[in-house]
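Operator note (shift B, R.M.): manual run for Membrane-bound lytic murein transglycosylase MltF requested after the automated queue skipped it. Running by hand, logging everything below so the morning shift can see what happened. Input copied straight from the record, untouched. If output looks odd, do not overwrite the archive copy; leave it for review.
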Amino acid sequence: MPANTAPQAASWIESRELVVLVQNGPTTFYVDAEGHYAGLEYDLVTRFASENGLKVRFVVEPNYAKLFERLQRNEAHLAVGVHESNGEQGIGFGPAYQSVRPVLVYRNKQTEQAALNAINGGAAISTMPQYVNVLNQLKVKSPSLTWNVVEAGDSEELVEAVAQGKIDYAVIGSQVAELAQKYYPQVAISEKSGAPQQLAWAMQDGDTELQAKLKQFFGEINADKSLAKLLDRYYGHVDRIAPPDSVAFLNKRNSVLPRYEQWFKKAAAETNLDWRLLAALSYQESHWDPNAVSPFGVRGLMMLTTDTAQRMGVDRLNPVQSIQGGARYLAMLRDGLPDDIPEPDRTWLAMAAYNVGLGHLLDARELARRQNKNPDSWADIKTTLPLLRDPKYYNTVRFGYARGGEPVAYVETLRSFYDILVRFEEPAQLAEPRLAANVEVQNPANRVLQINNRVVSAKPAKAKPVMTAAL
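Run finished. Output pasted below as returned.
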């Protein structure tokens, strides 16, 4: 399908198919570390479609301005993850579901004030079309402001360009900037940002039935906290590590990780785990120090207790065996959880059990049930684990007191290290994303949708503009 032509979208009421324009990016739509389609917009759209008995055809559109143009030409029913605006003729918006701030990104060798002085003095800013209105408003007070608009691409590419010194300044959304700073700790984010903007789904203004369904849908997922849990899934851990922590991790990735990489991959293959997850776990435990010792008696690269090492049949002071033992133990914890717990929650719950013990995790799940929360949701378990420090709660459960706040911080920090490795290291085996029978993805511009497409040189592959598959 050529990028500059598209057929008219048939009525979604008659065809029962929703055509959705989406942009590729870490906050919207991408292929994740496990080779599955993911992203806040992907999750929201597929849930909305499922609840309304609709099929979904995602169409990846790199150019933000064309999202509205294509809606106006009736080439799609929805454009998702866009900024609510009054300036788009014939376009209506569903309920706002996320607030973002436009922020200035600059290299951290400068002070914030020096960066602000530079742009107010006329230094060029690179930005995306959705932030032009903000810059126009700022230009009233700072007439010297200048900028260039990147029509096609995404905001994370601008962060990368700032980090590499290709451009000096960028104005993008806070949600992308905060995520990308983990991977590019060379950048800083100005706290003096523009006014918050609301994200919503756009559609043709006359489609009142679709607008009504969206109003009902977002009302329901706000009421039952589903939206809050999705936001937590994608953004809940973004502030767990500071830029110096990222720098230290990235340095050790180059200097230390290669010594153990083959063993992480071997253990991952034996346990059906992602080797990058095991590597992140090991860094969180020992900073890849095979001689690490904790005050509580755990030791080695994966910081195993004596009992766990004996149970797994390994010498915990032997780096290779420690990796094998830690991988087997994590796999045992994950596989011991109920089969109906979905990913990635299943993995994060297993990680919490690795840190605090399976018994205390089970107690936290029991507390979640008592509070009418979801015991299968990491977002909910994060709220009940800390209660295990309170006698009002730990005296009512089987395994008693635990430092329940520690596994929460542990898992959220580990997730950040894992995210970094996913950006910088290829998986052991590339997998083509699988789709449900009622979902189709069209990628006419042949964007590389993998989460690590910017920092790993992709191997040459034949482009597949349309990807469809049934589970």
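Quick read of the result: Residues 456-471 have pLDDT under 50 and may be disordered. The radius of gyration is 24 Å.
Leaving this for review. - R.M.
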